[in-house]
């Protein structure tokens, strides 16, 4: 190896070193420390005690673990498809050549993304207020039943999921718009000349060529769904209400909220870390499954 080659390698690693050190400090070290905590019975009031896999075994007997996991899976199964089914047609319309004021409409639909999640959750909580809320007011005008929403275990989680969908439509829309603009217009024009209908254009050209974007959006949305915290926390226990988050009757107790309650309210840091490790495993597993079954090779 020449001296000049060794010189380039040295400076290459020298420039990589700060970023690599930051990765070790911010990502890898906390991850390994959390795994260590998951094998211990640890509280801020007592020294750590090694218990092996006892925390993981405890989860199998914990009804709140299964309840929070069920709520999170229900959130994922409903919210992620809803966002895709709304944002994809919206992106197609906003990408249409005939539409005027595109920038205005794109800005309007993207506003929820840049709105403070805490502030938005407080506003939605007021909208869903059972007695004086705007939603029930209009339902009353239409002669429809007025649910208790956040005060009713049957309606609390669906109400919170509405906010989750509203908050993320703009993000998915922008990503789909970026993907649509990479599709060569020649393919679309050639298909139109051959007499393809709008549905045939979407099914045989747009959707296959949009597959990489669709996979990326799906992965991001599923990860966000498993990590959801702020919206159910604020809407179930925010403000001056000092009740435990996730109510009523744990109807909105999603998995990250469950971890937060264990670690920062009950101070059972070992058990909370074990739950966090399970969350990490689930996210990695579901992401790999999405990549395996959704990804299609695309050749322009």
TrEMBL record:
Compartments reported by the entry: Cell membrane
Gene3D superfamilies: MetI-like
SUPFAM superfamilies: MetI-like
UniProt keyword Transmembrane present: yes
TM region(s), chain numbering: 7-26, 73-96, 108-128, 148-166, 213-235, 269-289
Annotated ranges, domain ABC transmembrane type-1: 69-290
Main location: membrane
GO cellular component: plasma membrane
Bilayer topology annotation: Multi-pass membrane protein
Keyword Chloroplast applies: no
Alphabetical list of InterPro entries matching this protein: ABC_transporter_permease (IPR051393), MetI-like (IPR000515), MetI-like_sf (IPR035906)
UniProt keyword annotations, A-Z: Cell membrane, Membrane, Transmembrane, Transmembrane helix, Transport
Biological process terms in GO annotation: transmembrane transport
Similarity comment: family membership: Belongs to the binding-protein-dependent transport system permease family.
Name by which UniProt lists this protein: Sugar ABC transporter permease
Species of provenance: Thermus thermamylovorans
Source taxonomy: Bacteria, Thermotogati, Deinococcota, Deinococci, Thermales
